[in-house]
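Predict both folds.
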Amino acid sequence: MPNPIYLVSACLAGQKCRYDGRANTHPLCQALVQQGLAVPICPECDGGLPIPRDPAERQGDLVVTCRGRDVTQAYHRGALAALETAQRLGITRAILKAKSPSCGSSLIYDGTFQRRLISGEGVTCSLLRRNGIQVCSELELDCPPWG
């Protein structure tokens, strides 16, 4: 089995770990995991949040659910777990779910729960990038260095 070279959001790999208990299966991400080239991660679950769970959005440095619960610490725990996995396995690239408050790499929801997007990145994406890991979303897979 080859060594993994990517972290992949588990929902993109077909795992039903989204906030609503569904997956966001992306065929390429699923194939990378099946071939042993990627390791699936779900920072929300790894941070201790259940499935299903209330939707959450970033509000500045906080991550808050639609009911006003501050889940920032869970998001930070999950981000740290993702970073530790990458460092332990020598992984330098990640394919993360677009728009997520954890995994978003260029656009995230604005924190009002009105489905409005703003420039920004999720908690996990930010931590990975600060530690030298290249991150893209499933929407950017046809762009270099991914395509």
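Second protein follows, with its predicted structure tokens after the sequence.
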Amino acid sequence: MRNVLRSLLAMLAAALLVGAEAQPTTPEVLTFKLSMSNIHAIRGARIVLVDAGSKGDLPKLEAEMGRAGIGWRDIAAVIVTHGHSDHAALAAEIRRRSGAALILGSGDVEMAGTGHNDELKPTNFMATLLKKFAIDPTYEAFKPDRVVERELRLGEWGIAGRVYQLPGHTPGSLVVELDDGRSFVGDMMLGGYLGGALMPQRAGEHYFHADRHRNFENIHTLLKGPGKLFFLGHGGPVTRESVVAAFGSGEPGAH
């Protein structure tokens, strides 16, 4: 009888330990295409959203979540890749509805706190037109619950991966890198043309960068890592081969 009791206690202790911290898994990735940008849902032990859309995107986001069987309270965290209005606008509202933690790079905390884009620096003529006629730079300001300085592991949400800061597109741009080689890079790159409406799997340069040269270097930094498939804020996803074709490998003498 004593041995049976010991066995039961051991089984109970093991169950409590497993429940105390979600075990990282290989997650499913869902992409919700909204009015101007993508929101990605990483479905591990909990749901982690990457980015938070534009003003006016809430009904479409809620409909997409419903089709995927995701409720507001299923969302444990929102990783905002950068503080621009087409990626951060719904962050505060999502937190109110879900209780999710908002995660942001340290370099973009001030931008999020003002609820206004930084000075957009166009990379081509189309970008100049977009800046002038198509972009509302304002959104509901917010203060993040978690600020990424260097690296944040995602294991506490049951996802095998990490988040780290690569300033370039903005001062606090984040990369979400899963251990299986899938990465989420926000607006470091653009997929296709017309905001991803045409040829979305073709990697190319985004319309705006705070530091264009540093962003270019960041792409080559990614290519030195394990990344095989890159999910973007607009268009995508794009393969490593597509990124190399557009930007070169970063190796000496290579295109």
